[in-house]
Amino acid sequence: MMKENLGRMEIMITLNTERRSFGLLLLGLALMMFVIPSLGGQVYASPDETATAFVAQNIAWHGRAFFRESQAFDFPWFHPRSFVSHGEKIVPVGFLGWPFLLSLVARIFNPDALPWFGSLLILSSVWPLYQLLKRHYGWEAAWWGTAITFTVPSMLLYANRSLFPNGALLALMLWSVWLIRHAQEKRYSERKQFWFQVLIGAVCALCAAIRPTELVWLMPWWIWFGWSWRPQKKDWQGLVLGVLIIFLPLLLLAHHAYGSAIQIGYFLHDNVRAVLHVPAAASMNVTSADASNILPFGFHPRMLIKNIILFFGGWLWPWMILLIISMISAWKKHRVFCLLMIWTFAVLLFIYGSGRYLDRPGAWQASLGNSFLRYLLPVAPFFGWAFAFLHVRFFSRTMIAQRWGAIIGVFLILFGMYGAFFRDDEGVMATRRELIRYASIRQASQQWFSARDVIISDRSDKIFFPDKRVASPLSSTTEVARLAHTPGVRVGLFSRPLTQSEQDAWRAVGLEAQELMSSGRERLYRLAPLSP
Question: Which of 326, 342, 470, 518 could, after both became Cys, cross-link 461 (CB 3.0–4.6 A)?
Answer without folding.
Answer: 470
